[in-house]
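User: My collaborator sent over this chain with a note saying "see what the structure looks like." That's all I know about it. Can you take a look?
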Amino acid sequence: MKYFIASDHAGFQMKKLLFEELLHSNFETEDLGTWSEESTDYSDYAQTLSASILKKPESKGILLCGSGIGMSIAANRFKGIRAALVWNEELAKLSRLHNNSNVLVLPARFLSENQAKSILHTWIETQFEGGRHERRIQKIESDLPTS
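Assistant: Without extra context I'll predict from the sequence alone. Here is the result:
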């Protein structure tokens, strides 16, 4: 499993922390930027990460911005991307169990470092439940435009 991670300037510090957390946990991880706190456009990083996942469908992604809202909107424009804006462990778990989210979106300005790490690990460790949820995901995917 490969994890792509990206952020805008507001999520930069937390992205660095989570990138190190992924490496420390021995996950194959690629940082797609940004690389400073200089102002950037979140949509650029959401697009780059989403395209990377679509090229490698078995991979997953983590996006961070100040509120998480912009990143989740931008990423969910891509058919095949199921980006979940998550701010606690229960939502992280449900986003994987029921929605098979392949992108975790975190609101960097609203989480502590420990909360972010805990959410990340919950999301990674939770597997998709399938069953009735598979049918629902197929309906979502069939209704989406290609980009």
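A starting point for your reply to your collaborator: The radius of gyration is 14 Å.
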